[in-house]
Amino acid sequence: MDVAQTLLAIIPIVWLILSLGVFKMRGDLACLIGLGITIVLSIVGFSFPVMHSITAALEGITMAIWPIVYVIIAAVFIYNVSKESGGMDTIMKMLTSISSDLRILVLLLAWGLGGFLEAVAGFGTAVAIPASILAVLGMSPVKAAVICLIANTTPTAFGAIGLPVATLSQVTGLEVKQLSYTVSIQLFILIILIPFILVALTEDKGFKSIKGVFGITLVSGLAFAIPQVFISKYLGAELPSIVGSIVCIFLTVLIAKKMSSEEEKASAEKVSTSDGIKAWIPFILVFIFIIFSSSLFPVINQALSSIRTEFPIYIGEGAKPYSIVWLTSPGTLILLATFIGGRVQGLTFGQILGILGKTVKQMGKTMITVGSIVGLSKVMGYSGMIDIIAVSLVTMTGSFYPFIAPIIGALGTFITGSDTSANVLFGELQVQAAHSLKVDPFWLAAANMAGATAGKMISPQSIAVATGATGLVGEEGNILKQAMKYCAIYTLIICMVVFALGKALGKI
């Protein structure tokens, strides 16, 4: 192990931790400076040719634009259109009219709706919307913020139409379906446990709060976990959280209605079937488009996938042409569904275009942040910096490394606020570590993703969204302190699952 080169290689990571976690710099500025530092280090410290470094960064920036930022824009766009048309208000009305029990509303809003919003949009919507509704319904704003931060963990693995796992697959070169399935297996236990934690936090009685709602809480977890495993195995990364959250909401609503008294049923605000369908139509179309363009329908999939553009960017050793597949990108499918759904909901074509323009402007700093972080990752990867870190970690921890692999993913999300960026930063490192240890690379890459869901809970960006949504700006430290202990427990469980289950299945 070369100590000097290892210390040089971790400078970009240390910079991101300090700039974002200590100096509280803006994400776009910190990541842009980080990219510059990485390019200079690769040239000076690792004898990486100047043009190799520049073209590596350009390849990363291109990957950031397509498909990552493209999908983020499309995902936020569908939410913005639904909000403008009133469809999102109808969806929320449908959920809040089901029960007056705050514990059940937490399952529906923080877990069910939050999981759904994370699946189709991400970008803070899964924390902001449920937290603000729970605060309006009478829950302590701090409690609402903490509950929604905890809820917005496991669903983030397949958030924004599967973008984190799809990006991890692209960064590591690992097949996306097997990777998706491995992630869902690692998260299975936590998906069942999280609803119980949410209910326990709803009242000031701890786990005594579960009395009377144990059955519905268990169903909420299982209804999310089981479909996610099967969908990830057979369809890939796009639909697991969408299907899981929809099944979860449906079964939770069904049981909640059976538990409701006649008085509650009589006073509930009614939403007609036609209004309900109209509210959900953009998301229904996303579901349909993704299924029919997937490998389940090979004729359609192959025809659409054949429309692609390939061009070289990186000029160094191991270079491959960069490929843009235009029509099967989730971004394209979401855009199409949103335009059709928006028209069905009564918006004009001009209004929808206007919302798209505002959404693109809204994403300006995100584009810089993601572009810089993906560019930084590519330079670190091609120049050998990630290889050196991986070898050093494996040398220091040996066969124990798989236990700490999720912690690295959690660190990435804490630093960047994004599961996708955490996978870009450390996905290749995990694969290199797997090769060094001669263990299953899918298992360690998935461990990075599983760990990344933990870091989301305490990410400064996530906490900022939660405080903004609940009127608690200035209370970030208090919320971080409360969320930190749950993050530690969550991370420990993930580490134990990855290590123990990996041993049991012969993966490590």
TrEMBL record:
- Record keywords: Transmembrane helix included? yes
Molecular function terms, GO-annotated: lactate transmembrane transporter activity; solute:proton symporter activity
Q: How does it sit in the membrane?
A: Multi-pass membrane protein
The record's subcellular location field reads: Cell membrane
Organism superkingdom:
Bacteria
Stretch forming the signal peptide: none
A GO cellular component entry from the record: plasma membrane
Q: What residue intervals traverse the membrane?
A: 6-23, 30-51, 63-82, 94-113, 179-201, 213-231, 237-256, 277-300, 333-356, 368-394, 400-417, 487-506
Q: Which UniProt keywords apply?
A: Cell membrane, Membrane, Transmembrane, Transmembrane helix, Transport
What function does this protein fulfil?
A: Uptake of L-lactate across the membrane. Can also transport D-lactate and glycolate.
NCBIfam families on file: lctP
Protein name listed in UniProt:
L-lactate permease
Source organism of this protein record: Vagococcus humatus
